[in-house]
């Protein structure tokens, strides 16, 4: 089984005990973390931005507090950091004509990053178009909680 890149919503659900998907995220993570899990600058920045926002309910934390929590979690031997090493402009990896809309841009990018790293993207999103990434197969996308 390949390493799973956790998308922003999965990271948020893991860090926020009041998140609607917190239990499901922890269930999945508990079953899969030993296979390896990854973050990248986009997922880290997105998680810090959202959780440190004054308007985010239930958590009153600064970016420094959120990053400290993340650093402690990421010290785990099962964690991998993937640099942002792909571009949506790379037509050898991406098929821009298959991106279904503006809301899929980051999802498709993360799927491409997972494919490039021989991994899979772990997400709650059921609408990520596999065809937008050359070489993406169903095994490259894990929809958590998908029944």
From TrEMBL:
One of its GO terms (molecular function) is magnesium ion binding. Keywords: Hydrolase, Magnesium, Metal-binding, Nuclease, Toxin, Toxin-antitoxin system. Mg(2+) binds at residues 7, 107. Its cofactor is Mg(2+). The keyword Metal-binding applies. It is an enzyme of class 3 (hydrolase). Its EC number is 3.1.-.-. InterPro entries: Mtu_PIN, PIN-like_dom_sf, VapC_family. HAMAP family: VapC_Nob1 (MF_00265). Belongs to the PINc/VapC protein family. Toxic component of a toxin-antitoxin (TA) system. An RNase. This is Ribonuclease VapC. The gene is vapC.
